[in-house]
């Protein structure tokens, strides 16, 4: 009787030998006849997939969290950078808007349809008088620019006022709305002459010494007449805004809205011409 080689071996050794023989058989069939092993392989792969997924979950979760953290930090950095760029663009846009508006104002001054016969000087408003009851502005041109007391100052809409003090690098200009200011005017529609004075209100002038029976209407255009040679003739002063006639009074109360931007003007023109300080003849229209 042949002795059994497994009879005296421990169970673990027998299991090892059986496993080795099984592996060798499987390897042989996989090498020589793979179509026999393939169905079993597919079944094993399908059974092991959930185990693989569960085993890889901690690693995938850590990678996903790292990616999310990096993405959030990157988004914050990009958001901060974009906000900074947006702020810079808005600042540049504000500057461009101001430059565009200033360019428009300067073009309006240079292309003004007002009658200009002689040299002019463009100046910038740099301040106002310290007295709140006076309507006086300060411009950045003075005696070094050959400015003199009495010169007319206007913007692209009409007369603003007149120079009353000249310093080396600046001048003071009394606006039409100042209570101490007045000038001779005429109505465009009828040619009637009158006096327009300041009221202390930047948006309102008053026309004085006009009879209640005078031919004047709301909307009439008012121009400088040139009388007195303080202002050149033919420049816009304002528009008649309100007329109040009194039956018992000799003169009417007439409000005139100034043409020039007395409250918001930033650039002005100083006229040098003396030949314009002569009344222009009225022509019927």
UniProtKB/TrEMBL annotation:
<keyword id="KW-0133">Cell shape</keyword>
<dbReference type="Pfam" id="PF04085">
    <property type="entry name" value="MreC"/>
</dbReference>
<keyword id="KW-0812">Transmembrane</keyword>
<dbReference type="InterPro" id="IPR042175">
    <property type="entry name" value="Cell/Rod_MreC_2"/>
</dbReference>
<protein>
    <recommendedName>
        <fullName>Cell shape-determining protein MreC</fullName>
    </recommendedName>
</protein>
<keyword id="KW-0175">Coiled coil</keyword>
<dbReference type="InterPro" id="IPR042177">
    <property type="entry name" value="Cell/Rod_1"/>
</dbReference>
<feature type="transmembrane region" description="Helical">
    <location>
        <begin position="12"/>
        <end position="31"/>
    </location>
</feature>
<dbReference type="GO" id="GO:0008360">
    <property type="term" value="P:regulation of cell shape"/>
</dbReference>
<dbReference type="InterPro" id="IPR055342">
    <property type="entry name" value="MreC_beta-barrel_core"/>
</dbReference>
<dbReference type="GO" id="GO:0005886">
    <property type="term" value="C:plasma membrane"/>
</dbReference>
<feature type="coiled-coil region">
    <location>
        <begin position="65"/>
        <end position="99"/>
    </location>
</feature>
<keyword id="KW-1133">Transmembrane helix</keyword>
<comment type="function">
    <text>Involved in formation and maintenance of cell shape.</text>
</comment>
<dbReference type="InterPro" id="IPR007221">
    <property type="entry name" value="MreC"/>
</dbReference>
<keyword id="KW-0472">Membrane</keyword>
<comment type="similarity">
    <text>Belongs to the MreC family.</text>
</comment>
<feature type="domain" description="Rod shape-determining protein MreC beta-barrel core">
    <location>
        <begin position="125"/>
        <end position="271"/>
    </location>
</feature>
């Amino acid at each position: 009787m042949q002795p059994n080689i497994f009879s005296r071996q421990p169970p673990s050794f027998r299991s090892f030998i059986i496993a080795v023989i099984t592996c060798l058989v499987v390897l042989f069939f996989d090498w020589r006849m793979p179509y026999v092993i393939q169905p079993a392989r597919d079944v094993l792969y399908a059974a092991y997939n959930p185990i693989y997924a569960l085993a890889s979950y901690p690693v995938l979760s850590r990678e996903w969290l790292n990616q999310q953290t990096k993405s959030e930090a990157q988004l914050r950095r990009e958001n901060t950078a974009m906000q900074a760029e947006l702020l810079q663009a808005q600042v540049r846009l504000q500057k461009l808007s101001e430059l565009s508006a200033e360019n428009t104002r300067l073009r309006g001054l240079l292309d003004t349809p007002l009658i200009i016969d002689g040299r002019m000087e463009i100046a910038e408003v740099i301040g106002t008088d310290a007295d709140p009851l006076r309507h006086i502005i300060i411009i950045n041109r003075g005696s070094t620019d050959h400015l003199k007391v009495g010169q007319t100052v206007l913007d692209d809409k009409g007369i603003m006022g007149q120079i009353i003090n000249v310093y080396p690098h600046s001048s003071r200009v009394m606006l039409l709305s100042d209570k101490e200011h007045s000038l001779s005017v005429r109505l465009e529609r009828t040619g009637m002459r009158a006096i327009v004075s300041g009221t202390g209100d930047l948006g309102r002038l008053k026309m004085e010494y006009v009879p209640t029976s005078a031919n004047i209407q709301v909307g009439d255009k008012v121009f400088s007449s040139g009388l007195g040679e303080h202002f050149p003739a033919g420049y816009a002063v304002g528009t008649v805004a309100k007329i109040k006639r009194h039956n018992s009074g000799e003169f009417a109360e007439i409000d005139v809205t100034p043409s020039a931007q007395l409250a918001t003007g930033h650039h002005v023109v100083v006229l040098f011409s003396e030949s314009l300080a002569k009344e222009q003849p009225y022509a019927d229209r």
